[in-house]
Structures are given as structure tokens and as C-alpha cells.
Amino acid sequence: MTLAIIIGYLALVLAVGLLSRRLSTGTGEDWFLATRNIGPFVLLMTLFGTHMTAFSLLGASGEAYRTGIGVFALMASASAIVVPAIFYFIGLRLWRLGKKNGYVTQVQFFRDRFQSDRLGLLLFVILVALLIPYLLIGVMAGGLTLNEITNGSVPQWAGSLMVCAVVMAYVTFGGLRGTAWVNTLQTIVFMVLGGVTFFWIVSRLGGLEAALDRVAVDNPDLLIRGARIQPLKLLTYAAIPMSVGMFPHIFMHWLTAKRAQSFRLSLVGYPICVAIVWVPSVLLGVISTSDIPGLSGPAANSVMVLMIDKHAPELLAGLLAAGVFAAIMSSLDSQTLSLGTMFTQDIVRHYRKAEMDGAAQVRVGRLFVLALIVVTFLISLVAPRSIFKLGIWSFTGYASLLPLVVAAIYWKRATSGGAIASVLTVAVLWVFFFVRAWAVPGYTVGGTGIMPVAVILAAGALALILVSLVGRPPERAVLERFF
Amino acid sequence: MNSRRLVLIALIVLFVLHHDLWWWDADDRLFGMPIGLTWHILLCLAVALTMALFARIDESDPGGEP
Question: So what's the ipTM on this one?
């Protein structure tokens, strides 16, 4: 039954993706940017669905199992404050500039703003390098989840293959319009199914109050922050959601908005959606410590699957798996499409001497998406499970690049030299901290609670300011197009 | 005061309130949940309210000002 529900869900996703093609105008701009015609509700659902991964369903409950309720403050409510702020102060402005100057990718924007081909290429390499592990994590998580939910009867590779095949079909056929429509469906699915799972399990445990009373007896320190989260970690962890300002896939979705007013619902709805998804996951993780005690390390990440197995196998397991697949695919599709778009626009189209028409661009884009998904699937067959640790480092890298976009749109004095210095500083420090932290679970700088992202971000900002101030100011004619 | 500045100030205040050291070790319940969790749920709603009330988006301004 579990498998039947999952296959039924994947068929539905495919149908929506293919149906959306009927609305396509068939142009390059439609495939890459849905003709910049996405309305408020679909924009909110796509931005939220793209940003949230399966971590918010499974990883969050595992983290809450280990750390307690503080996970919500650390990872969810910080996002609820930072992300709408970035949508408002950065996303909206980039949307206006993108519409005015006809950008399709982030690299085009930075290349134009700083008049530097070198910066464009450097950024392309770094943005792509940070996104590939993120893709891989999504594909592997799909396989692992299905394997666990079906008690090992579906091998990991088969689950990964299902995710890849479905995403490949609707992204290559439907482009960004198909992706946006499917994301809307998937976001609704994982929000609703996360809630259904929560209420079902909690009612079997005699209600939330009774379940929390048991935790208060067994593990009272999970109901407070206590010593499990350091205050400095809470403060500096808030830099992680700043990554949303530099994600190529979020940039791409910003550009699709039909009007400036289309952003309003995302500003208001995003923090509410965060609460809807994260509160059930965190509470389930905490109350499961009394119901399924004794899990430690990565085993705790399977706690939601184990709870379902105990309280509602079959139907709920199938629904949860559909929810997890929805969360995975709603990020994976946008990421592959943004990479395909970047390869097409920033490399092929930019460096090719002859002009490419829209149809040729779409053909190249489809080929890149296809190749990316095939390569990602093949790597997922051999990649070690420790690759999941790369997730936080991907976010760290993007967040540390935030000063670049802030300076590009708010600081006229920012120069290409400053931008390159900032990117290089981030790259060097990222490698430095990555090497130091890889083998240390819960690493913070010097054990102080300070997350590496805060140090890298500050150093990147400083490099940008100092090098910009000693260089020649940008030309007035260029600045007039941006300010 | 323009709307951008108002939103910025409100979000900074909410960010400060996010670091709720005063609930750090409190084991009380509010609305049936640990108070350290309920506080952060309320913060999410406060951000939504802030954006609904103060964030003005001027459709007619193509120059870049939100």
C-alpha cells in the first residue's frame, strides 16, 4: 500500500507538470522564466517549497529528538525573520532590475553591475560547486527514505531513480512554468501531510499535553534550551538563512513574479508557512523521546519513520513518504533548472560567438538538465552517507556571499575588485573551516558557539569594503542603470 | 518615516526578541506547549503581521525602491 500511494503521488506530480505545458507560450523566456508571469500564491508556494527540503520534515524531528525544542528557535523562527526581510529588501529590488535589464541568471546581474567577466566566471564556478552537493543530498534522501519506510523492500537506488526520473520529466518538458505549478502542489502536499502525521500520532499518544507530560518526566531538559544550545550559537546561526539571498534557484523564482505586488503574499505568508511545517516536526521529535527512547547519532533522523511504523503503518507511511518526496522534489527541480539555465545562459550563450534563438536555448537547457540529473543519480550510487554533512556547508557558502548582493544593490561605491576580493575571501575561509570542522560534530569556532558562517560572512564583507574603497569608483553610466 | 525604515526597525526588534534568554530555562507551558517554543511561534506570527501592516510595495516605481 505504501508503494502504491507513492507511485500514485508521483503520477499526479507528473500529470501536473505535463499539463502546465499547455499554458506555455513556447518561447525561451517561458521555459526559463515562465514569461515573468507568476502570481502571488504560486510565487509563495514555489519560494517556500524550493527553500524547504526534506530536512524540515525528517531532519528537524531528528534534531529535536537530540536537542529539544530549541531547534525551532535555531532553525525555524530565525528563518521566519531573516527570509522575508531578504525577499523585501533584496528580492524585490532584484526583480525590478531583472525586469528592467532583462536578466535571466544571477551571474548576468553581477557581471553587468560590476562590469567584470572575470567576476562572472568566478561566481559561476562557486555557485555551481555549492549547489551540486545540495542536489546530491536530495537524490540520496529520496532513496533512503523510501528504503526505510518500506522496511528495506525498495532498495535505495530505486527510490533515487524514481525521484530523478519524475523531476527530469516535468522540468525538461515544462521548464520553469511546470516547475512552479508542481512546486505549488508539492508544497501544499508536504504542509498538509506533515500536519496529518502529527495529529494522528499525537492522538494515539493521548493528546499533546499527555505526551509532553511524559517528556517532562523522562527528558525534562528537552523542553527548555538549557545547556543544549549556546546563546552565541543561536545568535550566529541566524546567519545561515541569509543564504536565501544568494541561492541561484531562489533568484530565478524571484524573477518570475508578474508584478511587484506579487511579492506581498510571500512576505506575509512565509513566516506562517515556516510555523506550519516546523512546529509539528519539532514537537514529534521531542515527544518521540519517551515513545522510542535510546536512539543516538544519525539513527535519530529516522525517528519519524519509526513513529509511523509503530503507530500507523501502511496508509500513513505512504502519505508521509509522499510528503517527503514532495519536499525533496520541490527543491531538486528548481535547483536542476537553475543550474541548466546558468550553463545555458552564462557559459554557452555568453561565450558562444554566434547568436542563439529561444528554441536553441531551450534545447541546450533541456540537455543540461538531463545530463545533470543523470550524473547526480550516478554519483548518488557511490557517494558515502557522510555527504549529508555537506548541507550546512552549502548554506554557509551561500550565506557568506550575501554582502556581495547587498553591496551590488545598495552601495554605489562597490567595485569589481571589491567583489572579487570578497568572493575569494569567502572561498579561502570556507575551505579552512570546512577542513577543521569535518570530523568534529557540532563544530563552532573555538568551541565558543560561534558558527563559522558568521566569521566568513564578516570577513567577506570587510574585504569587499576595503578593496572597493581603495579602487576606482564605478562609472556613472553603469550606476545609473542600477540606482 | 518611510515604510522600508519602519519594516527594518520592526524586524530588528523582532530579531532581538528572538534571542529570548529570559525563557532559556523556563519550563512553563503556554497554549499547551513549552513557553520557549510558543514564544517563537508568536514571533513568526509577529513577522507576518509586521509585513502585512508596514511593507509597502510601490507598483509604479520601476527605479528599484521597494
Answer: 0.93
